[in-house]
# Entry
Amino acid sequence: MSGQNGQPPEPPSGPFSHLQKVLEGGTFAVAAELGPPKSADRSVIERKADMLGGWADAINVTDNQTAASRMSSMAACSILVDKGIDAVFQITARDRNRLAIQNDVMGASALGIRNVLCLTGDDVSLGNHPDAKRVHDLGSIEMVQAVKRMRDDGKFISNDDLTGEGPQMFIGAASNPFAPPHDFRPVRLAKKVRAGAQFIQTQCVFDLERFKAFMADVREMGLHEQVHIMPGIMPVKKPGIMKFMAKNVPGMMIPDELITRMDSAADPEEEGVQIAVETIETLREIEGVHGVHIMAFMWEKIVPEIVQRANLREETVT
Amino acid sequence: MSHAAKRENILFRLIGWIERVIKGALFNFDECGQCILKDNGFVCPMGCPKNLRNGPCGGVRQNGHCEVYPDMTCVWYAGITSTERRQYLMDDRVPRWWMKTGLFLRSQDKIQPPVDWRMHGTSSWVNHAIKRNDQFLFLEGKEGLEAYAWHMENEEVD
# Structure
């Protein structure tokens, strides 16, 4: 698909998705996360979509979250698209080699999915098939580059040409400001941006001081003007879950005062929501934060309450 | 030994053995055949269970250990936090605002291309010498533009 006179073809101009329109329009965006079930039950996706749909600009569908085998992310995204919801297709390098990554991205675009989030993926040892072979043919940065190259240059990784239009997608990647080495995190983010990432969703924010330091580095490098950063928010139901995450989930930072706060609360669920709302309010004040990504893992029904209490939406979007 | 290595001639295999002995003793060596040790502050990224060649994943534990093997220090963490290695990997002498111009790439800012698995098991010294890993697809900056222009000129336009 080389252009005329040997020049590279004009990259397709956006916006590709509703999420991109919201972010580029300067509105504080809300993305919510939906975990597909460990079954082929379509009604689970539909029920969760009805719960979240009106409250978020886009819904992320996880790809074999925590490395446990689940319904395909692309299939679940397609169900959301059929319901008129903007879906973010999460795709991991853990389960696919470069052929499968490219074919899934093209397939997703053909199904009308307009956002893709490229991830390296949790390791298989954390999931329900610790005996599986991990693929990791590409890393997340190379994946972002491959999707951008297919979209803008009409070429595969191998330099072979696409025979028609490339995936029409808004490209995202993840970042974890909390995992050491902390001074390398903005450097890696800069690489993702240069590779072609247009929006960034981060690991759940509990430690606001660390996140502010990360954002200061990001602003110093001028990255906040090149990419839309959407920090992750995770409402926690029970103090036990928070303690478990602090101890066992790699790359997570949870300050002790939050754990004591959850421990001493009379109503832990209410306290968890309150912490999430306060975190969103603080994050909104930080320059360069353009939205939030609410990951209510196994607790999707709380999302409307958080969105309302944090004054992100007065009424439903649709 | 990989199939690629078996097809090599005896001289190349000999060089491969020497490379394997030296790098095997010093680094977390995996014979990818496209060595980027010099760009990475002599951290072999193939020692990472996820084979990440562009920096550490988000699963590094707070003590700097690997998500996959809790007893192992993350290969990237080891490189970035060690003073001797850091001077190769993180060129701190270059001010950060240079990055905004996009003209100057420090070694930590280079995006490494995906591994060419056809070369796995062969000697990267040989591959460098005979330019077997002359990939230009993912080169950046001036180098990349030149390679791209060369490719466009030499490609048959249909």
Summary: Chain B touches chain A at residues 49-62, 64, 67-68, 76-77, 80-81, 90, 96-97, 99-100, 102, 108-109, 111-115, 117, 137-138, 140, 148, 151-153, 155, 157 (CB under 8 Å). Residues 10-26 of chain B form the longest helix (17 residues). Chain B has seven helices and no strands. Residues 135-141 of chain B have pLDDT under 50 and may be disordered.
